């Protein structure tokens, strides 16, 4: 037996590594999650990552997607435009992710979309938002104003006899878009908006706006701030100022409400997910989350549950397409359905989803009392020009 030259052994090893690397890459499907671990969304982002981790663990335990293992790449987008540009660029062009799935601020989403188009990467957006964001690469499985606003305004007008409204928002696409729709809806229903005020996304001092609310004394208050931290500071200061008007928050999720503590009691919310949805799928999901994360579990909510379902929607689309090729997956995303904690979700209406919506009120323990249910609410005209 002859012994190969040592350099030959090294060469064979190097060749083997070079041959193995593409094969290893081909055996993995990578999901990119750009999300606000810092900034305005930092209150809720950890719950979003947790739900994605559970979905991937469950999928891998059953053989992955098309026999390939699924992994996550998480990047902090800082909840804003500049951070999103870095996060999207890194995930798409350096990490070479197959898909992006995440909730984000509208500022981050808008900054990331041109990078998504350049990288021709499918993107499932899992955050409620102001609506009408359209891209050939974008699908949305969360609510828009057309689905969310009516339950709160109708309730205030009918049950609280509200005629005058004061609106408060963060000064960016979500805050202004949500409240423009809300103002239009209030006026269409015969109500009057007697004030609408906006503060920067990272605002922490709401004193001037609260003074205006007290001076106008509205029948009801509706807010739409950047999800997470601004909700906490605004609500705390509203309570400290003694404002008693019925308060509808268009941007608070169940997890953030719990984080607010006693200040959140009495807030009215409208959304597509509550932890007390009484269904086998939701009970199984909550039990699985509790088993996986235990005392570290962040409250599942209307931002994290769509994330969990979107991972399964991507799985279904890839399996229907028979590959991770972007064009085939994008076509399939409009056709597949996911039965998850929120029920059956299909992103079939101009790349948005009809959703069952819930009107609830935050209780003293941070839980939500369910007041009304609205089945399969249509998202309306969102992206009619996209084929």
UniProtKB/TrEMBL annotation:
| Secretion signal, residue range per the UniProt entry | 1-25
* One Pfam family from the record: Peripla_BP_6
Ranges for the Leucine-binding protein domain? 28-366
Per UniProt, the keywords (alphabetical) are:
Signal
Answer yes or no on keyword Signal. yes
- InterPro entries in the cross-refs: Leu-bd (IPR028081), Peripla_BP_I (IPR028082)
Give the UniProt family note. Answer: Belongs to the leucine-binding protein family.
Q: What is this protein called?
A: Substrate-binding protein
Origin organism is: Prosthecodimorpha staleyi
């Amino acid at each position: 037996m002859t012994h190969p030259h040592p350099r030959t052994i090294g060469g064979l090893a190097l060749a083997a590594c070079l041959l193995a690397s593409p094969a290893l890459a081909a055996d993995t499907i990578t999901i990119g999650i750009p999300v606000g671990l810092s900034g305005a969304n930092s209150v809720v982002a950890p719950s979003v990552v947790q739900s994605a981790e559970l979905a991937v663990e469950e999928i891998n335990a059953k053989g992955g997607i098309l026999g390939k293992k699924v992994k996550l790449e998480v990047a902090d987008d800082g909840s804003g435009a500049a951070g999103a540009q870095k996060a999207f660029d890194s995930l798409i062009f350096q990490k070479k992710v197959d898909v992006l799935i995440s909730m984000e601020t509208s500022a981050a989403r808008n900054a990331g979309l041109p990078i998504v188009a350049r990288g021709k990467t499918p993107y499932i957006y899992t955050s409620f938002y102001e609506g009408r964001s359209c891209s050939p690469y974008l699908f949305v499985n969360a609510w828009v104003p057309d689905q969310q606003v009516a339950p709160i305004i109708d309730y205030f007008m009918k049950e609280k006899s509200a005629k005058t409204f004061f609106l408060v928002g963060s000064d960016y696409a979500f805050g202004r878009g949500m409240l423009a729709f809300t103002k239009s809806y209030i006026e269409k229903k015969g109500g009057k908006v007697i004030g609408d005020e906006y503060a920067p996304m990272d605002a922490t001092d709401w004193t001037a706006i609260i003074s205006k609310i007290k001076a106008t004394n509205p029948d009801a208050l509706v807010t739409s701030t950047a999800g997470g931290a601004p909700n906490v500071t605004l609500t705390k200061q509203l309570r400290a100022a003694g404002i008693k008007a019925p308060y509808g928050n268009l941007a608070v999720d169940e997890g953030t409400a719990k984080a607010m503590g006693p200040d959140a009691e009495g807030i009215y919310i409208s959304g597509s997910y509550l932890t007390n949805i009484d269904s086998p799928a939701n009970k199984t999901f909550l039990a699985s989350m509790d088993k996986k994360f235990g005392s570290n579990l962040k409250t599942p909510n209307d931002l994290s549950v769509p994330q969990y379902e979107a991972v399964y929607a991507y799985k279904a689309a890839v399996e229907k397409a028979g590959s991770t090729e972007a064009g085939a997956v994008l076509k399939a995303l409009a056709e597949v359905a996911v039965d998850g904690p929120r029920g059956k979700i299909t992103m079939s209406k101009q790349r948005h989803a009809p959703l069952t919506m819930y009107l609830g009120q935050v209780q003293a323990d941070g839980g939500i009392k369910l007041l009304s249910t609205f089945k399969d609410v249509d998202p309306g005209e969102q992206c009619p020009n996209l084929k």
